[in-house]
């Protein structure tokens, strides 16, 4: 007689909800899984993504949005700061890295762990947390040593004894640890200074510091299968906490609205004036209210469904251009609808 050792320890419902059991059940040979595999095999974007070494077919959606709205266009090739929410597995990271001007800073944020492409930074965090917003702001405020080295290339430092010093990365790191302000000096602010700091310039620097992001991308919703990172202490059971698509149109729509509002709050908190926002949502009765909220914050809000989206899918995108101002009153936005 065979006696299961797991029987006395685990209830049947716990076993069924265990990650390994769900993974096995999902890929057990069934009609739905066979249809999914057949659809993937016949899908031109899935094949092209594999050919182009892209993380997923979602990359083509962002490419088509950028082609239509010039998301990553920057006058004069000025580097951009880009935040990608729901970044895993990294397809939109790849597109942003390819389309942004050189030396742009791209940060992927996801509750799931993933490996970003080289040249992109990532943060495993919950976007619903205010601390995550602060961490994103701090990331873009921090100046990397390389850019500071470029600022000091033409600076000659001479000691009291007449010895010339060479500015090295160690010098810059020491300056960082000492919290030396490289933008202004006490002489600039003194009453007798020949070149006093303009109050308008100070205001601009402060705004750039508090709202450092040029583009916010949000593809939050359907996650990839988590196969690693379960031991991470950043979040508790991150995969189980994701808003997974259920196949029920009403439920998927309502959960997508919550994540869209979360992305809108990120844009209000971090996006600079004239910044851009792209939000993925599932169509339904509430999306008109989301559109009203977006129009309070942005000059132009347009619905767009890339051809890379499947025809039967309810997914669509709001492309928001030209944030009206740096500071936006959240109460005014969410009182609107």
UniProtKB/TrEMBL annotation:
Residues 176-198 have a biased composition (Polar residues). The keyword Zinc-finger does not apply. InterPro entries: RNA_methyltr_RlmE, RNA_MeTrfase_FtsJ_dom, rRNA-MeTfrase_E, SAM-dependent_MTases_sf. Residues 55-323 form the Ribosomal RNA methyltransferase FtsJ domain. One of its GO terms (molecular function) is rRNA (uridine-2'-O-)-methyltransferase activity. The keyword Nucleotide-binding does not apply. Keywords: Methyltransferase, rRNA processing, S-adenosyl-L-methionine, Transferase. Residues 176-205 are annotated as: Disordered. Gene3D superfamilies: Vaccinia Virus protein VP39. GO terms for cellular component: mitochondrion. It comes from the Eukaryota. Belongs to the class I-like SAM-binding methyltransferase superfamily. RNA methyltransferase RlmE family. This is rRNA methyltransferase 2, mitochondrial. The lineage of its organism: Eukaryota, Fungi, Dikarya, Ascomycota, Saccharomycotina.
